[in-house]
Amino acid sequence: MAETNSLVINHLNKKFDVDKKQVEILKDINLTIKKGEFITIVGHSGCGKSTLLKIIAGLVGYSEGEIIRNGKPVTGPDTDCGMVFQEHRLLPWLKIKDNIGFGLDKSDKRKWNEAVRKYIELVKLQGFENAYPSQLSGGMSQRAAIARGLVTNPDILLLDEPFGALDALTRVQMQKEILRIWEEQQTTMIMVTHDIDEAIYLGNRIVIMSARPGEIKEIITVDSANAKVRGSADFSYYKQKVYKHFFEDKSETIEYTI
Ligand SMILES: Nc1ncnc2c1ncn2[C@@H]1O[C@H](COP(=O)(O)OP(=O)(O)OP(=O)(O)O)[C@@H](O)[C@H]1O
Ligand SMILES: [Mg+2]
Fold first, then answer.
1. Residues lying with their CB under 5 A of ligand 2, a single-atom ion
2. At which of 121, 153, 185 does a domain end?
3. Residue having the nearest C-alpha atom to atom 22 of ligand 1
4. Degrees (nearest 5) of the Cα angle 170, 101, 5?
5. Burial class (CB in 10 A: 0-12, 13-18, 19+), 132
6. Which residues line ligand 1 (CB under 6 A)?
7. What pLDDT digit, counting tens, does each position of 163-203 carry?
8. What is the largest CA-CA distance in the chain?
9. Global pTM value
10. Which domain holds residue 48?
11. 131, 153, 175 — which closes off a domain?
12. Per-residue pLDDT tens for 21-40?
């Protein structure tokens, strides 16, 4: 039977050595993500969100537990899992097309060109193939980073606050773009964000993490189509549901009225 889960995490713990002492960063993380799901993760700064993504990507090891990516235990980075970082991390000396195609096999030039062209079109950067990163805006650079993450056709794309450095208008535009790309490519997406609106707008499920050591406090399923309409009553309902985890004093929660 075909694997229906992109990711299965069981009892994952992560400790880092700091000053010769073991510091607990992630505690008993359990999470199963189905193929094609869009998962958003929110939590306080330092609770281990980036560490969790790096563990899923195979870039960082873990202390205890089990993590199965596309049916196989994670042993290291692989082309079946792409990653987009908060800063675009494009190489300044390479043209956009070479940045996007950096991780692709160059032995078959025709195949390379085809793949790069496809993803340049997907992120709407036609005309900028030969530009250098310094010649692009922040939003365009993030589009290029998303194309680079997708060019190997991964089953899973991990996004670590990819729109954190963008202005509010570009950010909303990029959120629409990533939804379009997700619908077109049907890639499983796991995105860390500090923006609660973004988490609701994009996520099929929202994973709420506690402060360090990061534990999963709640997984909220966004199961109303109206929740995707910003400013709707359903959107506000989910917003309150997320906010209550971060503001114990109810007077600090923001009332959203339409
Ligand atoms: N290589 C490392 N060695 C030791 N400690 C580390 C290492 N990497 C991260 N940490 C620590 O692990 C904790 C979690 O870091 P992480 O970057 O995962 O947090 P985060 O939730 O992504 O935070 P932010 O929202 O600010 O990006 C922090 O306390 C950090 O100092
Ligand atoms: Mg982080």
1. 50
2. 153
3. 50
4. 75
5. middle
6. 16, 18, 25, 43, 45-51, 212
7. 888 888 888 988 998 999 999 989 999 999 999 999 999 99
8. 61
9. 0.91
10. 1-79+157-258
11. 153
12. 999 999 999 999 999 999 99
